[in-house]
Amino acid sequence: MINQLKQAVQEIYNQFDASHDFQHIERVFQNAESILETEPEADREIVQIAVLLHDVSDKKYTDSKENEDALLNSLTLSDAKKRHIKEIIESVSFNGGNEVAAKSIEAKIVRDADRLDAIGAVGVARTFAYGGAKGRKLYDDAEEVRIHMSEEEYRSKSTASVTHFYEKLLLLKDLMTTEKGKQMAEERHAFMESFLDQLKAEREGRA
């Protein structure tokens, strides 16, 4: 079932830009597997399915839950498991700090696995890939970093890519919910800080 679902979702994700293509899903899947090794009580199949489906109806690309619902309904799972998967997916998004609580261990694993792919070297690459696809500036020193905002405010303003680090990505390390996720986030967070320092030095003529 997992292999069939991978094939089905690949066609959807490869329509998105490089920040949310199928390679993103493969990396999140790998992150989730690493965390699952330290969380034996978690339902591996539920985690895997939620990872594969978590972005098929991403609000950045569609206003509809059609893909998510159609793919979930195609699976031979109980209604309880389908509800659980939908709850996991709902809790993944940052939403400008207005996130839905991750109540189950499966939700915590999927959320950490996804957020790990938003930070570190891959996170840097994805940020600028998305910014480029949306025609955003690399940086804007005059832009005010927003700390408290609604989901609508978070999604409606096209901020510069560097601003996104301060509004979301640098916050994720301290929002990890599993011990493995916290450990994996440390090095990736440090890399982002180093990258931003180097970027600032170069554009100010200090390096």
From TrEMBL:
Limits of the HD/PDEase domain: 17-128
Designated name of the protein: HD domain-containing protein
Pfam families, per the entry: HD
UniProt feature coiled coil, ranges: none
